[in-house]
From TrEMBL:
UniProt protein name: Site-specific integrase
Domain Tyr recombinase stretches: 108-300
Organism, as annotated: Limosilactobacillus agrestis
Domain of life from the UniProt record: Bacteria
SUPFAM superfamilies linked: DNA breaking-rejoining enzymes
Single Gene Ontology BP annotation: DNA recombination
Family classification: Belongs to the 'phage' integrase family.
Protein backbone atom coordinates (compact mmCIF):
# COMPACT_ATOMS: atom_id res chain seq x y z
CA UNK A 1 0.00 0.00 0.00
CA UNK A 2 1.07 3.58 -0.67
CA UNK A 3 2.01 6.17 1.95
CA UNK A 4 -0.16 8.80 0.26
CA UNK A 5 -1.61 11.41 2.61
CA UNK A 6 -5.40 11.50 2.68
CA UNK A 7 -5.39 15.28 2.06
CA UNK A 8 -3.45 14.67 -1.18
CA UNK A 9 -5.71 11.81 -2.21
CA UNK A 10 -8.82 13.85 -1.46
CA UNK A 11 -7.59 16.79 -3.56
CA UNK A 12 -6.80 14.47 -6.49
CA UNK A 13 -10.23 12.90 -6.00
CA UNK A 14 -11.90 16.31 -6.35
CA UNK A 15 -9.98 16.97 -9.58
CA UNK A 16 -10.88 13.54 -10.94
CA UNK A 17 -14.56 13.22 -10.02
CA UNK A 18 -16.02 16.61 -9.11
CA UNK A 19 -14.48 19.34 -11.25
CA UNK A 20 -16.67 19.91 -14.27
CA UNK A 21 -19.44 17.60 -13.00
CA UNK A 22 -20.96 19.68 -10.18
CA UNK A 23 -22.00 23.32 -9.84
CA UNK A 24 -19.37 25.79 -8.65
CA UNK A 25 -21.17 26.37 -5.36
CA UNK A 26 -21.06 22.59 -4.71
CA UNK A 27 -17.44 22.35 -5.80
CA UNK A 28 -16.54 25.11 -3.36
CA UNK A 29 -17.97 22.99 -0.53
CA UNK A 30 -15.69 20.08 -1.51
CA UNK A 31 -12.70 22.42 -1.39
CA UNK A 32 -13.87 23.68 2.00
CA UNK A 33 -13.82 20.08 3.23
CA UNK A 34 -10.27 19.76 1.88
CA UNK A 35 -9.17 22.80 3.87
CA UNK A 36 -10.71 21.30 6.99
CA UNK A 37 -8.82 18.05 6.38
CA UNK A 38 -5.56 19.96 5.95
CA UNK A 39 -6.17 21.54 9.33
CA UNK A 40 -7.41 18.46 11.19
CA UNK A 41 -5.70 15.54 9.41
CA UNK A 42 -2.53 17.01 7.85
CA UNK A 43 -0.40 13.87 8.36
CA UNK A 44 -3.05 11.14 8.11
CA UNK A 45 -2.11 8.52 5.55
CA UNK A 46 -4.85 6.78 3.63
CA UNK A 47 -3.68 3.33 4.73
CA UNK A 48 -3.89 4.35 8.40
CA UNK A 49 -7.52 5.47 8.40
CA UNK A 50 -9.59 3.23 10.66
CA UNK A 51 -12.99 3.35 12.36
CA UNK A 52 -11.60 4.81 15.59
CA UNK A 53 -9.62 7.74 14.17
CA UNK A 54 -12.33 8.53 11.62
CA UNK A 55 -15.00 8.66 14.35
CA UNK A 56 -12.61 10.88 16.34
CA UNK A 57 -12.29 13.23 13.34
CA UNK A 58 -16.07 13.51 13.02
CA UNK A 59 -16.52 14.02 16.77
CA UNK A 60 -13.99 16.86 16.86
CA UNK A 61 -15.57 18.51 13.84
CA UNK A 62 -19.00 18.18 15.51
CA UNK A 63 -17.84 20.16 18.54
CA UNK A 64 -18.02 23.40 16.56
CA UNK A 65 -20.54 22.62 13.82
CA UNK A 66 -24.25 21.88 13.55
CA UNK A 67 -25.50 18.38 12.75
CA UNK A 68 -26.33 18.95 9.07
CA UNK A 69 -22.92 20.55 8.48
CA UNK A 70 -21.22 17.57 10.12
CA UNK A 71 -23.29 15.22 7.98
CA UNK A 72 -22.20 17.05 4.82
CA UNK A 73 -18.53 16.93 5.88
CA UNK A 74 -18.83 13.19 6.53
CA UNK A 75 -20.49 12.52 3.17
CA UNK A 76 -17.67 14.32 1.35
CA UNK A 77 -15.00 12.35 3.20
CA UNK A 78 -16.83 9.05 2.87
CA UNK A 79 -17.24 9.41 -0.89
CA UNK A 80 -13.47 9.75 -1.30
CA UNK A 81 -12.77 6.93 1.16
CA UNK A 82 -15.06 4.55 -0.74
CA UNK A 83 -13.09 5.25 -3.90
CA UNK A 84 -9.85 4.72 -1.98
CA UNK A 85 -11.15 1.24 -1.12
CA UNK A 86 -11.93 0.68 -4.81
CA UNK A 87 -8.39 1.79 -5.63
CA UNK A 88 -6.97 -0.77 -3.21
CA UNK A 89 -5.59 1.82 -0.77
CA UNK A 90 -7.83 0.63 2.07
CA UNK A 91 -9.21 -2.81 2.91
CA UNK A 92 -12.04 -2.05 5.33
CA UNK A 93 -14.62 0.73 5.31
CA UNK A 94 -13.81 2.92 8.35
CA UNK A 95 -17.07 4.87 8.01
CA UNK A 96 -19.38 1.95 8.88
CA UNK A 97 -21.55 2.25 11.99
CA UNK A 98 -20.56 5.87 12.36
CA UNK A 99 -22.21 8.07 14.98
CA UNK A 100 -22.87 11.58 13.71
CA UNK A 101 -23.18 14.32 16.30
CA UNK A 102 -23.40 18.10 16.09
CA UNK A 103 -24.31 21.29 17.87
CA UNK A 104 -27.98 22.05 18.32
CA UNK A 105 -29.01 24.34 15.44
CA UNK A 106 -30.00 27.87 16.31
CA UNK A 107 -33.67 28.67 15.88
CA UNK A 108 -33.89 30.79 12.77
CA UNK A 109 -36.92 33.00 12.57
CA UNK A 110 -38.11 33.49 9.02
CA UNK A 111 -38.35 37.20 8.24
CA UNK A 112 -41.23 38.23 6.02
CA UNK A 113 -43.61 41.13 5.52
CA UNK A 114 -47.37 41.31 5.78
CA UNK A 115 -49.33 42.18 2.64
CA UNK A 116 -49.80 45.76 3.84
CA UNK A 117 -46.09 46.19 4.59
CA UNK A 118 -45.14 44.66 1.24
CA UNK A 119 -47.37 47.20 -0.50
CA UNK A 120 -45.64 49.98 1.44
CA UNK A 121 -42.25 48.63 0.35
CA UNK A 122 -43.28 48.33 -3.32
CA UNK A 123 -44.52 51.92 -3.25
CA UNK A 124 -40.96 53.02 -2.48
CA UNK A 125 -39.49 51.41 -5.60
CA UNK A 126 -38.19 53.67 -8.33
CA UNK A 127 -39.58 51.81 -11.35
CA UNK A 128 -38.05 53.60 -14.31
CA UNK A 129 -38.86 53.25 -18.00
CA UNK A 130 -35.85 50.92 -18.37
CA UNK A 131 -35.07 47.81 -16.36
CA UNK A 132 -33.19 48.56 -13.16
CA UNK A 133 -32.53 46.98 -9.77
CA UNK A 134 -35.96 48.02 -8.51
CA UNK A 135 -37.68 46.03 -11.26
CA UNK A 136 -35.60 43.03 -10.16
CA UNK A 137 -36.85 43.51 -6.59
CA UNK A 138 -40.44 43.75 -7.82
CA UNK A 139 -40.17 40.58 -9.93
CA UNK A 140 -38.85 38.54 -6.99
CA UNK A 141 -41.59 39.91 -4.74
CA UNK A 142 -44.27 39.04 -7.31
CA UNK A 143 -42.97 35.54 -8.16
CA UNK A 144 -40.97 34.25 -5.17
CA UNK A 145 -38.12 33.10 -7.40
CA UNK A 146 -34.56 32.85 -6.11
CA UNK A 147 -32.09 35.68 -6.71
CA UNK A 148 -29.89 33.54 -9.00
CA UNK A 149 -32.99 32.46 -10.94
CA UNK A 150 -34.07 36.06 -11.44
CA UNK A 151 -30.64 37.03 -12.77
CA UNK A 152 -30.73 34.12 -15.22
CA UNK A 153 -33.99 35.16 -16.89
CA UNK A 154 -33.90 36.01 -20.59
CA UNK A 155 -36.66 37.46 -22.78
CA UNK A 156 -37.31 33.99 -24.22
CA UNK A 157 -38.27 32.70 -20.77
CA UNK A 158 -41.44 34.84 -20.78
CA UNK A 159 -44.72 33.70 -22.29
CA UNK A 160 -46.44 37.06 -22.36
CA UNK A 161 -49.56 35.75 -24.10
CA UNK A 162 -50.28 33.30 -21.26
CA UNK A 163 -48.67 35.41 -18.52
CA UNK A 164 -46.13 32.76 -17.58
CA UNK A 165 -42.44 32.65 -16.76
CA UNK A 166 -40.22 29.63 -17.28
CA UNK A 167 -37.41 29.01 -14.79
CA UNK A 168 -34.88 26.72 -16.45
CA UNK A 169 -31.45 28.08 -15.45
CA UNK A 170 -29.71 30.39 -13.02
CA UNK A 171 -26.88 32.93 -13.17
CA UNK A 172 -23.62 32.35 -11.33
CA UNK A 173 -23.49 35.80 -9.75
CA UNK A 174 -20.75 34.85 -7.29
CA UNK A 175 -18.06 34.43 -9.95
CA UNK A 176 -16.31 37.46 -11.42
CA UNK A 177 -17.46 37.02 -15.02
CA UNK A 178 -20.71 35.21 -14.32
CA UNK A 179 -22.34 32.55 -16.48
CA UNK A 180 -25.51 30.56 -16.94
CA UNK A 181 -25.72 27.42 -14.85
CA UNK A 182 -28.22 24.74 -13.91
CA UNK A 183 -31.00 25.27 -11.40
CA UNK A 184 -30.60 24.21 -7.78
CA UNK A 185 -32.40 20.90 -8.39
CA UNK A 186 -34.66 19.25 -10.96
CA UNK A 187 -37.78 20.56 -9.20
CA UNK A 188 -36.48 24.10 -9.66
CA UNK A 189 -37.13 23.80 -13.41
CA UNK A 190 -40.70 25.02 -13.58
CA UNK A 191 -43.21 27.32 -15.21
CA UNK A 192 -44.94 29.82 -12.94
CA UNK A 193 -47.81 32.20 -13.50
CA UNK A 194 -47.25 35.95 -13.44
CA UNK A 195 -50.02 38.44 -12.83
CA UNK A 196 -51.18 40.18 -16.06
CA UNK A 197 -50.06 43.66 -14.96
CA UNK A 198 -46.49 42.54 -14.21
CA UNK A 199 -46.43 40.45 -17.39
CA UNK A 200 -47.46 43.43 -19.53
CA UNK A 201 -44.94 45.67 -17.80
CA UNK A 202 -42.08 43.29 -18.55
CA UNK A 203 -43.26 42.82 -22.13
CA UNK A 204 -42.78 46.53 -22.69
CA UNK A 205 -39.51 46.67 -20.75
CA UNK A 206 -37.89 43.78 -22.62
CA UNK A 207 -39.11 44.30 -26.20
CA UNK A 208 -35.80 45.70 -27.48
CA UNK A 209 -33.40 43.60 -25.41
CA UNK A 210 -30.93 40.97 -26.61
CA UNK A 211 -32.95 37.73 -26.27
CA UNK A 212 -29.86 35.65 -25.46
CA UNK A 213 -28.63 37.78 -22.56
CA UNK A 214 -30.14 37.97 -19.06
CA UNK A 215 -32.64 40.84 -18.99
CA UNK A 216 -31.05 42.40 -15.92
CA UNK A 217 -27.47 41.99 -17.18
CA UNK A 218 -27.67 43.42 -20.70
CA UNK A 219 -24.66 45.69 -20.14
CA UNK A 220 -22.54 42.91 -18.67
CA UNK A 221 -22.17 44.78 -15.38
CA UNK A 222 -22.39 42.61 -12.26
CA UNK A 223 -25.22 43.07 -9.81
CA UNK A 224 -24.04 42.16 -6.34
CA UNK A 225 -26.58 40.70 -3.94
CA UNK A 226 -25.24 43.11 -1.32
CA UNK A 227 -26.32 45.99 -3.60
CA UNK A 228 -29.85 44.60 -3.76
CA UNK A 229 -29.96 44.14 0.00
CA UNK A 230 -28.71 47.70 0.54
CA UNK A 231 -31.50 49.00 -1.68
CA UNK A 232 -34.04 46.92 0.23
CA UNK A 233 -32.76 48.20 3.57
CA UNK A 234 -33.14 51.79 2.35
CA UNK A 235 -36.65 51.23 1.02
CA UNK A 236 -37.83 49.26 4.06
CA UNK A 237 -36.71 52.06 6.37
CA UNK A 238 -38.40 54.67 4.21
CA UNK A 239 -41.60 52.62 4.26
CA UNK A 240 -41.41 52.12 8.01
CA UNK A 241 -41.45 48.32 7.79
CA UNK A 242 -39.13 45.59 9.07
CA UNK A 243 -35.90 45.33 7.07
CA UNK A 244 -35.76 42.16 4.97
CA UNK A 245 -33.21 40.75 2.53
CA UNK A 246 -33.79 39.68 -1.07
CA UNK A 247 -34.36 36.16 0.25
CA UNK A 248 -36.89 37.67 2.64
CA UNK A 249 -38.90 38.72 -0.43
CA UNK A 250 -39.13 35.05 -1.37
CA UNK A 251 -40.27 34.17 2.16
CA UNK A 252 -42.79 37.00 2.03
CA UNK A 253 -44.22 35.74 -1.26
CA UNK A 254 -44.59 32.19 0.05
CA UNK A 255 -46.01 33.29 3.40
CA UNK A 256 -48.70 35.43 1.77
CA UNK A 257 -49.74 32.53 -0.47
CA UNK A 258 -50.04 30.14 2.49
CA UNK A 259 -51.98 32.69 4.56
CA UNK A 260 -54.32 33.13 1.61
CA UNK A 261 -55.11 29.42 1.57
CA UNK A 262 -52.89 28.22 -1.29
CA UNK A 263 -52.01 24.57 -0.66
CA UNK A 264 -48.53 23.55 0.48
CA UNK A 265 -47.95 21.39 -2.67
CA UNK A 266 -48.81 24.36 -4.90
CA UNK A 267 -46.50 26.68 -2.95
CA UNK A 268 -43.71 24.08 -3.04
CA UNK A 269 -44.06 23.76 -6.81
CA UNK A 270 -44.03 27.53 -7.31
CA UNK A 271 -40.92 27.94 -5.14
CA UNK A 272 -39.12 25.05 -6.84
CA UNK A 273 -38.73 23.01 -3.66
CA UNK A 274 -37.74 19.39 -4.20
CA UNK A 275 -40.51 18.21 -1.87
CA UNK A 276 -43.34 19.54 0.30
CA UNK A 277 -41.44 18.65 3.50
CA UNK A 278 -39.01 21.48 2.80
CA UNK A 279 -41.92 23.91 2.44
CA UNK A 280 -43.70 22.66 5.56
CA UNK A 281 -40.54 22.89 7.67
CA UNK A 282 -39.64 26.36 6.39
CA UNK A 283 -43.10 27.78 7.01
CA UNK A 284 -44.05 25.64 10.00
CA UNK A 285 -44.90 28.71 12.08
CA UNK A 286 -47.55 29.74 9.57
CA UNK A 287 -48.91 26.20 9.17
CA UNK A 288 -49.34 25.92 12.95
CA UNK A 289 -51.01 29.32 13.11
CA UNK A 290 -53.46 28.33 10.37
CA UNK A 291 -54.13 24.99 12.09
CA UNK A 292 -55.02 26.84 15.29
CA UNK A 293 -57.33 29.12 13.32
CA UNK A 294 -58.95 26.12 11.61
CA UNK A 295 -59.41 24.35 14.95
CA UNK A 296 -61.23 27.41 16.26
CA UNK A 297 -63.53 27.33 13.24
CA UNK A 298 -64.19 23.62 13.82
CA UNK A 299 -65.10 24.25 17.45
CA UNK A 300 -67.41 27.11 16.48
CA UNK A 301 -69.16 24.87 13.94
CA UNK A 302 -69.52 22.05 16.47
CA UNK A 303 -71.01 24.48 19.03
CA UNK A 304 -73.69 25.43 16.47
CA UNK A 305 -74.76 21.79 16.37
CA UNK A 306 -75.36 21.74 20.15
Amino acid sequence: MTDKLFTDYYLEWIHMYKEGSVRQVTLDKYYLTHRELQKRWPLMKVKNINHYNYQKLINEYAETHEYLTVKGFHHHCKAAIMDAIEDGLLVKDPTRHLTIKGKRPKTKKIKYLSLLDLKRLVNQLDLKADLNIDWLILLIAKTGIRYAEALGITVKDFDFENHQLQINKTWDYKSKNGKFQETKNNSSVRTISVDPITSEQFQMLTKDLNPDKPIFLQTGKRIYISTINNHLTKYCRRAGVDVISVHGLRHTHASLLIYDGVSIPSVAKRLGHSNTITTQQTYLHIVKELEARDNQKILENMIRLS
